[in-house]
Design goal:
The protein has about 300 residues and is an alpha/beta fold. It is globular, with a radius of gyration of 19 Å.
């Protein structure tokens, strides 16, 4: 199944954009190869609001959020996961707005670090974040005219969660499903087996539109997620072919498999290959000396 990305997106920095009844999107001016045009924050409600993913510490973005809030109470701030482009501003706004922080839990890796392993993603994790409410899977928090269901979707991070707006067919998919690119799954923070299971979980739902953490909406989620699954299976086959061809290290595989990818993303690509290899080693498709690692030798 072909995977077609939609990269048409106008970020409208400094503005709150109406995207659905009582839903506004505000995009941080933090574009990068990993964030696309920037991180999306969402305001939900009319009188008393919910805020999803306030974003990084950014004074201009904070000012835009406060203008959009326009003095209305914000009862809850929901955080999809603890990467620094999504969560740090939450604690600042909690103090200023008196809101309750809701998330799956604090930052943590998907698995323990192996002996001698370094977490290359330490700088991206918001390890200081602590929610007031650790929302259980499939739990609902209600506000003034809105209710959000927390659906745990580990994979991109161990504590990743998406939020479904009850009474609608809208889901806020954060970094798990995005129209412009595939999600980065990078151990030890991420887990490919978890990511694939989380895709299956969302495929069992019937949401019509996803509003993601970066870029524009996913307007045909089921078809798109089937494409994501097919893409990951294709990547797995490519890795297996490189191993059979004699490649024994991840850098050698990345050079061939990602030859058309922006070189700035090759570090992330290497971690994605590691995520696949961890899963493939666990399933007996590939062998390695010791635990799978970025500098491991595979056959």
């Amino acid at each position: 199944m072909n995977l077609v990305f939609d990269k048409v997106f106008a970020p409208h920095y400094g503005e709150a954009i109406d995207i659905a009844p009582n839903i506004q999107r505000i995009t941080v001016n933090n574009p990068s190869p990993f964030t696309f045009h920037g991180t999306n924050s969402y305001l939900i409600g009319k009188d008393t609001l919910a805020l999803i993913d306030p974003g990084p510490i950014d004074e201009a973005h904070k000012a835009t959020l406060l203008r959009a809030i326009a003095g209305r109470p914000v009862s809850h701030i929901f955080v999809s996961h603890t990467h620094r482009d999504h969560s740090p501003l939450a604690s600042v706004l909690k103090d200023e707005l008196g809101a309750i922080l809701v998330a799956e839990g604090p930052h943590r890796p998907s698995r323990p670090l192996h002996t001698g392993e370094i977490n290359f993603l330490d700088a991206s994790g918001d390890t200081e974040f602590m929610p007031d409410i650790m929302a259980p899977d499939d739990s609902i928090i209600e506000g003034d005219g809105w209710a959000l269901r927390s659906i745990h979707t580990p994979g991109h991070t161990a504590n990743h969660v998406v939020f479904a707006l009850e009474g609608t067919d809208i889901l806020f998919s954060a970094d798990h499903v995005m129209a412009w690119a595939t999600s980065i799954v990078a151990p030890p923070d991420g887990s490919m087996s978890d990511y694939m299971a989380s895709l299956d979980r969302l495929l069992a739902r019937h949401d019509r539109v996803y509003f993601p953490g970066h870029g524009g909406p996913v307007t045909n989620p089921k078809t798109f997620m089937r494409g994501l699954k097919a893409h990951r299976k294709m990547r797995e086959r490519a890795i297996l072919e490189r191993v059979r061809a004699g490649d024994r290290t991840i850098p050698a595989m990345v050079t061939v498999i990602y030859r058309e990818t922006d070189p700035r993303l090759h570090g992330a690509a290497a971690l994605s290959v590691l995520a696949h290899l961890e899963d493939m080693v666990a399933r007996g498709l590939v062998q390695t000396e010791g635990s799978p690692a970025i500098d491991g030798v595979y056959w």
